[in-house]
Write a structure and sequence with these properties.
Strand content: 15-25%
Oligomer: single chain
Shape: globular
Number of strands: 10
Helix content: 40-55%
Largest sheet: 8 strands, parallel, barrel
Order of helices and strands: EHHEHEHEHEEEHHEHHEHEH
Number of helices: 11
């Protein structure tokens, strides 16, 4: 049975503060069957009750608090939400992705978390931005970006994946990967089964401009989905032009477009 389409709740962060249950009900009414939580310690029991009542699934959760001194309570909250996927979405300095030593430190940190999470029945994942994509590496050390030869070199996230315990999964934010200079379908094919989830967003391919509905921007969405057919599909907006109604309109258009691809 195909997984339901999910939405990252950071997309509707302001609306959740104003009316959590009403916002989740509105997402369900648009046809989304799952959500990805981002405030794992913010009343996980209450969130679980609402999503269960609405028939929603929790596809995973972002949990930057895992990088703190006490990951145990965070993992307990993840379990309460009914998911076994806890994703580190931020908190590692971008400069760690500019050298092999930094990548080794990052891998060690994530690998150690995976060992702790395993005892809770939870799997750890990592979510990229553009700064894990822009740096490229050759076999001898660091290499900048820019010319044609360098464009064929592996991205920092490729090198990181080689250093990670197989238990550590990846959630590829496809838009930020493109902004960072990746051929996203090719990146996904290289990373293979380690990619457990995709953030699907669209826009003009810049760091500053608002997102638009999936299918309405520059992203090669069909090719991306074909390159990671078994990954969770999670719609996310970092920002959206217009008011809350405009955001929900864009979410509805994203869902309609992705459903049309699935039906094709």
């Amino acid at each position: 049975m195909p997984r339901p389409l999910s939405v990252q709740l950071y997309t509707v962060r302001d609306q959740l503060v104003a009316d959590r249950e009403g916002t989740l009900r509105r997402l369900a009414g648009l046809g989304y069957g799952a959500v990805e939580a981002y405030d794992v310690l913010g009343d996980p029991k209450g969130l679980r009750r609402i999503v269960d009542d609405l028939g929603l699934t929790v596809s995973g959760t972002h949990a930057v608090q895992l990088l703190g001194p006490e990951p145990g309570p965070v993992l307990d909250a993840v379990a309460i939400l009914g998911t076994d996927l806890a994703i580190v979405p931020a908190g590692i300095p971008p400069e760690e992705f500019t050298s092999r030593d930094g990548l080794a430190r990052t891998a060690d940190r994530l690998n150690s978390l995976a060992d702790v999470a395993r005892r809770h029945g939870i799997r750890i994942g990592y979510h990229n931005h553009w700064w894990e994509i822009e740096p490229r590496f050759d076999d001898e050390g660091d290499k900048g970006g820019g010319d044609d030869a360098e464009a064929a070199l592996p991205h920092a996230v490729d090198v990181l994946a080689q250093l990670l315990d197989p238990a550590v999964l990846l959630e590829i934010d496809t838009y930020w990967a493109a902004v960072g200079g990746a051929d996203v379908p090719a990146l996904l094919r290289r990373l293979g089964d380690r990619v457990r989830a995709l953030h699907l967003k669209d826009g003009p391919g810049t760091k500053e401009d608002p997102n638009v509905a999936v299918g309405g921007g520059t992203m090669p969405v069909p090719e991306i989905l074909a390159a990671a057919p078994d990954a969770w599909r999670i719609v996310e907006f970092d920002s959206c032009a217009g008011d809350a109604d405009a955001l929900f309109d864009e979410l509805a258009a994203s869902r309609t477009y992705l459903a049309s691809l699935a039906a094709a």
